[in-house]
Amino acid sequence: MALKNIKISPNVSIFGIVLFYLLLSGVMMLILFKLENYSFKYVIGFLEILLFAIITYFINIYYFKKINLKPPTLIGINTTLFTGLLIGILFALIENFPYRIYALFRTGNFEYLFLAFGAENLIKALGSGMFEEITFRGTLLNFYNQKNKKYLGLVISSLIFGLIHISNAYVGTEVSIIYIIYLIIAGLCFGLIYLNFGIVASITTHVMSNLLISSFIQPTKYGFYYILGIDIVICVWLFFRDKRKNVNKSTKANNAYN
Question: Which DSSP string do the residues of 53-86 spell out, in sequence order?
């Protein structure tokens, strides 16, 4: 059989696209990690984020049209964009800010406030937030959503999102079972934000959460459980909000038909 006659199912090929995006973002982060000149590193970091967004945008347009699905929508500068940004900031603050501020006053380490807005931390937060949201929510979850299997896609994308962070052990992060569970639930949270409010909201939540997590004092065991609990509450609320939204759509469609 000729190679050109071999057809790959969209249910398989979507994981090839995701794998390519993960490899691409991994190579970009590795290049950035190896650079020692900080001024040059900042420029390269922002260029990599822009390049990743452009590459994935055009690949997604081609791929989704090829499998007869709608490619992710490019959002312009309008009220939808600003609404998504505000929603993302709000969710990130609800999740992380109360404990982080409490920890700052408890320890008196106020210098962490200035680290939050440093160029290096901003690039890391933007990079990981953009890379992971475009890959897992904008591409993988978007695929399953259009296949009317969004909750299956939500679970799959969140599991992969959590498990790939096992690699953080190679950069000195302590990786435990509870750490992976936390990331899987965070993935569910980002995915439900995407389903309810769109990709801008999920990217903004992810980026802002990264800023707060990496810049402020790391939580104690009980503080970590507090943040995990907040994530679970947000997930439950967003899940039922999405279900209610679907019911309302079905009701309107039936009324219009009748």
Answer: HHHHHHHHHHHHHHTT-PPPPPP-SSHHHHHHHH
**Residue 4 CB contacts under 8 Å (≥ 6 apart), including other chains:** none
* Domain extent at residue 210: 78-247
pLDDT in tens, 194-218: 999 999 999 999 999 888 776 555 5
The span from the CA of 15 to the CA of 70, in Å, is 17
Picking from 188, 38, 199, 210, the residue whose alpha carbon sits closest to that of residue 122 is: 210
In-domain check, residue 199: yes
Structural domains counted in the chain: 1
Residue bearing the bigger pLDDT, 189 or 179: 189
CA angle in degrees (0–180, nearest 5) for 93-56-165: 50
Judge contact between 49 and 127, C-beta under 8 A.
Answer: yes
Contacts of 159 (CB under 8 A, 6+ apart): 184, 187
Our measurement of the distance from residue 154's CA atom to the centroid of its chain's CA atoms, rounded to an integer in Å, reads: 12
Is residue 181 a part of any domain in this protein?
A: yes
Q: pTM of the predicted model, to two decimals?
A: 0.88
- Least Cα distance to 142 among 73, 52, 80 occurs for 73
Whether the per-residue pLDDT at 84 is higher than 50: the answer is yes
Residue 221 located in a structural domain? yes
Q: Could you give the angle at the alpha carbon of 180 between the alpha carbons of 179 and 181, nearest 5°?
A: 90
Instruction: Please state the separation of Cα 37 from the chain's center in Å.
Output: 28
